[in-house]
Amino acid sequence: MYKPLIRIPYTGPLPPPLILPKSASTVAGATSALAQFLSAPPSPRLRGLDHGHYDQAVFLTGAGISVASGLADYRGENGTYTQNKSYRPIYFNEFVDSHEARKRYWARSFLGWSSLHKARPNAAHFAIGDLAKKGFISSVITQNVDSFHSQAHSHTPIVELHGYLRALVCINCHQLMPRDQFQQALARLNPAWATFLEELLSTGALDTENPAERRKKGYRTNPDGDADVPGAPYTTFRYPACPTCLTTAPELRDGSRGHVETDQDGAWSTESNAGILKPNVVMFGESIPSKVKIAAEEAIDAAGRIVIIGSSLATYSAWRLAKRAHERGMPIGILNLGGVRKEEAFFGDIDPLDSGMTAVRASQPAEIVLPAVLKHLQ
Ligand SMILES: [Zn+2]
User: Fold this and answer.
1) pTM of the model
2) Would the annotation count 176 as a binding residue?
3) Cα 276 to ligand 1 centre (Å)
4) Which domain holds residue 292?
5) Which residues are catalytic?
6) CATH number, domain with residue 312
């Protein structure tokens, strides 16, 4: 029976990181262990050997790999949950049910998009692309919605487990819209916000994730994290309706036809019961589409080992994939700054004097270690 896999945030404490082998406690040690790990022969413990590339690794990446690109992670030193204890992400049902919740979401996202749009993949993403070209990697599964993997190595098979922010999807007709086009529409519908955004960009207030520094540069946020735009509270924020639903009334779940109304400028109006665009990501409380879930499982099953980069596996969907790999007898390597949820389950029976052939666990920066691993293997 198909069981939906729902994305749920985890904010509990994490254990201190394990280090395996012992020599992996430095950048050089972690590099050499990971190089051994990637070039080892297929593990004799592997099960289900009816297909797949057993000497290749599947890489599973999380927010930690994008920190060197200037994005915030969740639990790192400057992570969202660390900097803002009361941070609570929007849930799917809230977004779908509430016009107020959507206004607030899009107002904040309007200000945040330019930083993400400007950010670029870093040395870790490019090293993964080069390792894949050399045959060490069969595919990449990412929890990130920043599109950095596809920008850095479009030649590698990539499963974007939680979708991507580069497009929006209509919850009624499922048509996609590029985010750039949507951003322009938001600017047109919210001129005061557009002016404010320009000011923020010119002061550099959006170049930092640090709330204190942002405030210093003129970006004020309320205790609940809302941007404070002079003369333009988020309750007046407007967002466009789905253009496809505007021309062709979509069919709703109950079989009836939806209707979409806009104001004179094209902003979605509360008279509507359809035409709602959402970021094309799996929001918290939303199920991962079954075809994505299956693609991720197939990517695990087609590889002979797994390397987890920049993820504390706090999200159940990611932890489950690591567990699947472990149950298949795949050697596991983890490169993540800080602890990983329930990691002792993967490394309990590993000899700490092992050279890195069967397991690696290091707490070093990926943007330094992965390019060094690549060099080591050349
Ligand atoms: Zn639509």
Assistant:
1) 0.90
2) no
3) 7
4) 1-71+121-162+287-378
5) 162
6) 3.40.50.1220
